[in-house]
Amino acid sequence: MNRKITDVFFKHLVSIVALFSVLALGAILLFVFAQGGMPFFTSTHSNVRLVAQRIDEMTVNGTFYKEHNTFIDIPGNTDFISIRIHSEDEDKLLEIKIDNYEKDAEKMLSFSYNGEVNITYPEGYVYTVSWPSAIPSLAQRIHVILPEPPYGFGKFISGLEWRPDRDKVFGIFPMIVGTLIASFGAILLGVPVALLCALFMAEFLKPKPASVVRAGVELLAGIPSVVYGFFGLMVIVPFVRTAFNIPSGNTLLSAIIVLALMILPTVITIAETSLRAVPLSVREASLSLGASRMQTAWRVVLPHANSGVIAGIILGISRAVGETMAVILVAGNSPHLTINPLSSVRTLTSTIAMEMGYASGRHSEMLFSIGVTLFSIILILNSFILWFRRRMDA
Length: 394
Fold this sequence. Notes:
By secondary structure, the chain is of the alpha+beta class. The chain is 55% helix and 13% strand. The protein contains 12 helices and 12 strands. The strands form 3 sheets. It has a 5-stranded antiparallel sheet, with no helix packed on it. It has a 5-stranded antiparallel sheet with strand order 3-2-5-6-7, with no helix packed on it. Helix 3 runs parallel beside helix 6 (252-276), helix 5 (225-244) crosses helix 6 and helix 6 (252-276) runs antiparallel to helix 9.
């Protein structure tokens, strides 16, 4: 009776934990996809906003503000803003006419004012109105922030320039290319080496030496990625610079070599475990037919363990695509389109890691969009590999 109650209790406990885990994962994915999709469907704000700088007292459309340091929201569909800056001498008057139907930010506002005023063209959907001062750093300023319209998804995916601070240009195609080339280069370089190591450990190395090597490989799998990046920065980057006689060794080739080293332990561990799981009877049947140990390993054992080997390759691809710190240290992080292995590149993960700390507004939303793009790339690659495996098994 007690055993039955215990079984029922743990059955419901496991069900509840599994349900909450699935709900938590779903909530996280929903949040990331919602944040990543917002820039393509919504504006950054519903109306025009003002920010006053070094202005003690001012009146905006009849509302008095004193030492106001936060945003001043202008009601939607307002077509006229009257700003009076109070001073001991002569009040400064600024009038802004808004064309709510104009899509071009440089033509959306027109200004009228008294006295001498400097007005900049919109830089990142922000006009800056400043009054000259003997000390430029103490000049009074008003920043007029326009709502940024939804960003085009095509411009985001196929754009060749990434200038989030200056012109609000968010093109990630060079980063997608850099991510894919670095990842596929690491797979082409690392997977054959990993498979050879796994076959050697599982089929040709004696049990005691194999256990020692296996422990070393598992230890390598636990090394933090920043340590691999530091190794690449101190060893691989100088080697590439010297070997190819180039000004800087922070290149795509350096990133490929570091990523190949990083995926080796993961692929070796999973592939070797799968190879050792192949029944001994399969090996004995092959050897009894006259096949050599090498032929048995390549043509019998390896095909029988293809599911585990492919799982290791999938994890290796996922780690290569999602790696951040090591790539930041060795790749150069230049957001330009290139396929030259001796040029600097930037990956999607590097962009998120380097800019999330200070990003805000549309910039922050675009970094979430990069995360969604990265998730989609990994999903597509893994789906293709699984489809290819099913085709091989068919």
